Amino acid sequence: MSEAQSVPDESTAASDLTAFQQNILSILAEEPMYGLAIKRELEAYYGSEVNHGRLYPNLDDLVDHGLVEKSELDKRTNQYELTDAGHDVVLDQIEWVLDRFVTDEERADEVRALLE
């Protein structure tokens, strides 16, 4: 079973998603990827194995929410790509985190250093 249920006819915000789903969107913000490449990126981040039974239902939920587009690379491989709505969710999450993290000029400098 997936970690979040699809809500039809409503836009999905970052706050509606699990951290795992937000991490998938962040990975896809870099470039479109096939499922196993996403799995490898998540495993590198978490430092442990990501089960197929967790990954693919969450990808399907993100597709259902309109945040990710799924296309066929070949008969056995699907590619996943961030949609414009998915892009907006990633930006909203970054903005939310930065609004809370950047509380003074020192922290603003830390963020600027990350961007350089």
TrEMBL record:
Domain of life: Archaea
One of the Pfam families matching this protein, by short name: PadR
Domain Transcription regulator PadR N-terminal: 24-89
Protein name as annotated: PadR family transcriptional regulator
Species of the source: Halorubrum ezzemoulense DSM 17463
